[in-house]
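Hi X.,

You mentioned you wanted examples for the new student's onboarding notes, showing what a folding record looks like when two proteins sit in one file. Here is a clean example. The first protein comes first, with its sequence line followed by its structure tokens.
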Amino acid sequence: MELRLLAPRLVKVPLLELRLTAPRLMELQLLAPQLLAPRLVTVRLLELRLLAPR
């Protein structure tokens, strides 16, 4: 999974990959409910690590 660092603890993740990695996407607190790009969402790095330990 490719992650782009936006801020110390924020990353942009392709929505499709996030769904595949974290099926419980609805439980994930998205910092930006609206999509930043067609299929990119911003998530907290810590939460992403908890969902996708890899």
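Then the second protein repeats the pattern, sequence line and then tokens:
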Amino acid sequence: MNECYLSLSTVHDHSYPPHHVHPLIQEKLHYQQAVDPYVEGYSTDEDGTVASSLLDDYLQFEPSSLKHDFLSLSVDDIKRSSTDPVTSSSVLSQARDKLITHFDTGHKKSKENYVLSEKSFPLTCDTDNTVNLQKCGLVLYFPQKVITTLVESPAAISYDVTVKGLWAEQFLFPKGTQLISSVTSIALNSPLPLDKPVTAQLMHCASITDQSQSKYLSFIVSHSSQPPFEFELLPGGEFLAGSKYGTIQLKEFSLIAIVLVVSATAAIATAIGYQFFQVPLLRCQGLIYYKRESENMKMSFAVLNDLPHNDAIIKFKKESYKKFGEEEWNFPFQMRTDSQLELHFPPDKPIGWTVLPLRKPPTIHERDVCAYTESQTSSDLPPYISVILQATATAAEWLSYEITVSGINIDKKDSIAIVVHKSRNSCISSIPSLELAPAVIEKSNEASEVFREKISTLSSIIGSGTSTIFDRISDEFLSAGLISQSILDDITTVPSYSNYQRGSRLIRELYKRLLKIDTLNDDLIVLCDILTRQEDEQLVQIGEDMKKNSSCAV
């Protein structure tokens, strides 16, 4: 595809005549209006009636809600569902998916602002000050004597700064742009105006590999006092190649964020002109979850923009995210704007095994990932694809199956393999649900929370380039009884696992154990001791932080 095909469907700007838009942009817009990917390949004729009728009787669902959700199953599949248990299982699993996630855009949207993180800082003018809202990637630098007066000394002049990370559905972003950062609120309580600008740094998810690509990024600001909060482009920001942060000088405070320019009209507004360089790829996270259902195992592959507030959203929406089950591992990758990724399922599977995606085609579009970042969807969950894993009683003992994800960029490759490695006993329908019994419930503990927040960091360290750290620390975990030999064998015998995937799987298996109330205290003490005697300084620091936040650690 030509690199100039960069626009989204919202490129119109009434302040500029239509003929000012670049011809390639117009062509792209025309194509998008002619072909709606959400309805392509679907119909509302007899096929739709069959699908709606079948599930409506069982779920008492409103037929209009099923228009696009269930027609991905073929008519033959639907007609077979009453006699074929595998097909029936997939239909009901898909129905559950839609019941819980409510992806239909007709649902009423909440008008509440979600505060993902908030901090307040009392500061004085006699020194340089730094304000860090780490969970949203915001850093503010207040210089010494940012406020001056002829009467008082700098030490006597105090001011308060309150910063918040927000996630809501009340934001109106400039047309032709998409949000690529947290939306942050900065409030200054000062007796006098600022005499010096404050430096703000905000993390974004664009991958700038060449300085020319910085022209695509812009800060935005909103001075609205009540919703909807309408943003406008803010000149003056700096975005360096190789950096995840944008920097700007501020003397007024309100709501700020960073957007990616994806249309010609927005380019005009930022004085970029029509000469487009290669648009930056967007950094994303792929999350792999598994959940035991009564009749099968379900794997879910979800995609988020790679932003620091993701953990806060997942924690805030934890009741919704429970439908995914337990996160087993994740991996970073990049996507091109206005593109889509697709899962590919090889036809060859072990005898007796079924691997069936619940969305056909099994694709996720980048604009849906963006819509979740902007909170412009009625779902509490990011875009995802669920896959049914089912085994008959006579199936091969193990399923080792590679699902390829294409349409992405990862380590200079255009695909990655998701390795599904599950036993027959975990996936046959006669096995009871794997959901935790009442006696084994999640425990709220500050030390385990420190560990949870550092899962990604620990995965990167332990799964670093060489296997030395992994081998050493996995041996210590095994010797201390923190993991079992079978789990370690399961992790190390998958040949296509990268080092990062092995590290991620090891840490997540350990975190599952920490959630069990019967072993939590003893395990935390042992884990802290193991981490603090490692050579890597980051591992030592994480162990120390866990000790500080745990009443049981010694």
